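Cross-check.
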Amino acid sequence: MEEFILETRGLTREFAGFTAVRGVNLRVRRGSIHALIGPNGAGKTTCFNLITKFLQPTAGTITFAGRDITRLAPAAVARIGLVRSFQISAVFPHLSALENVRVALQRRLGTSFHFWRPVSGLSQLDGQARDLLESVGLADQAGTAAGELPYGRKRALELATTLALDPEMMLLDEPMAGLAHEDIGRISDLIRTAAKGRTVLMVEHNLSVVANLSDTITVLQRGEILAEGPYAEVSQDPRVVEAYVGVDHD
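Predicted model, tokenized:
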């Protein structure tokens, strides 16, 4: 089994003459929590979009679990175990928490888009859905419409739906974005629990979260890797300190 589950080589993306990501060589160790950080405009989101195939690279290659995925479509990438969450909570607001998780679980049955089938036929998934809701602290909210949940609970629900896809690797796009202070510790704990037996790559602005959760940190600046290593090492790098001058480190 490969030591590094995800590797990019020379990953580059240009937009009408502007290079957002330039020659990024990223290696994510299997079973680790790896953070991608950097000042605004550093290329983090573009890099995420390239890895999850929402964008195609101008140059370079992407390998996941030993397979070249450079030209695969986003849905194909998700099917082989590389699953992404988004900065903006992505749930079906009019469905209950249980129903949201059940939709994600349908993929295992091969009926993801067969919405015309009787709901009763999906009851076999209720036990798994309730287990996932319990794992993220939402057991008592199974019947609540997702749109009525507080924002922090919606993020927990999104994590449950991501886990329902049984990913080998999760990519979390700013999982703490918009969370109240009291929710950050709880979501951090959920991510740490969810990471057991999986690999996590996350973009996150909250450096205290990065320090507490991450095994390895890659710092981007102007689309290139500036530094990489554990937080204790990276946070003392003079180049990183300079890059973050004027950036809120809370």
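The chain has two domains: 1-81+169-250, 90-166. Residues 246-250 have pLDDT under 50 and may be disordered. Passed to J.P. for a second look.
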